[in-house]
Amino acid sequence: MRVQDFLLAPGDFLISRSNTLDKVGRTVLFRGEIENCSYPDLLMRFRVDETQVTNEYLEGYLRSSIVRTYIQRSASGTSGSMVKINKSTVEKIPVVLPTLPEQKAIADLLSTWDEAIEKTERLIQAKEKRFKELLRELIAEQINREKETGWKKVRIGSFLTESRIQDRDNDPKKRLSVRLHLKGVEVREYRGTESDGATAYFIRKAGQFIYGKQNIFKGAVGIVPLELDGYSSTQDIPAFDVADHVDKHWLLFLFSYSNFYKKLELYASGSGSKRLQPKELFRMKISLPPFEVQQKIAEALFFAQEEIDLLKQLAEKYKTQKRGLMQKMLTGEWRVKQEGVKSHGK
Question: Boundaries of CATH 3.90.220.20 in the chain?
Fold first, then answer.
């Protein structure tokens, strides 16, 4: 085979023919974004008759839940993870085809949502970049500032006290876990095979600082939220009462700084899977600012993070609205108003 046989041209569609079930059949329209671009064997290429269907309409249609469901049901494979589709599967995809002007109107309407989603996601990226800079300015660059008025070099053990209230109820549905990558504290999935009393669990209280011994180096750290007050975890996920002169949210932001939590592995012990024991954590020294400074730092970072969270919620709403719109428009349940169709037919 020649490389030229695999070169793409604007208007080519590419579809994943071999992948995991959630990714097989994913489709993209090549618009000439890259010169001399070729495609790999794991993709199939096809073109359409543009006198019957517009590329932009079909691109949206092939990404709809209707087509995704069809492809997933048609995929086959003996592997537990990888499945395949073939040329016949693609050719048999059922497509609803309104008139060309209506197709163009639908594609333009969907592109409005795409633009809103893209702008919001770009804004999120910019805000996240600024948050990292702010975190570095307010946390990292102040680590060695104990010479300033009120700043002190202290051991972490001077303001954290491990909580070891044993869980007597031992309810397996009230277990909590700490997610990786600073994703916070959540309810642990219930495992029906757990043996009663096989492992000791300890009650955790809202506002306690908590971390995973094995994964704190990967951002498994958080504050127990109010809704998980009274839930429990094992000694592998210890929790701590925070002294009154330390703002727990400032403390969480300190542990959220990647250079800080990654270096904690240096204090971990164990020959196989390393764990950071509380006694080792307690020995670490940090620069502790006055309480009012802690509060100001935490407040600035909290509002910056909240802005990002709100933008992420907005982006998700746009995506949900687009999915709903696609479902209605691409099945013909909703039709574009005639004046919109006429403007695209000119």
Answer: 152-288
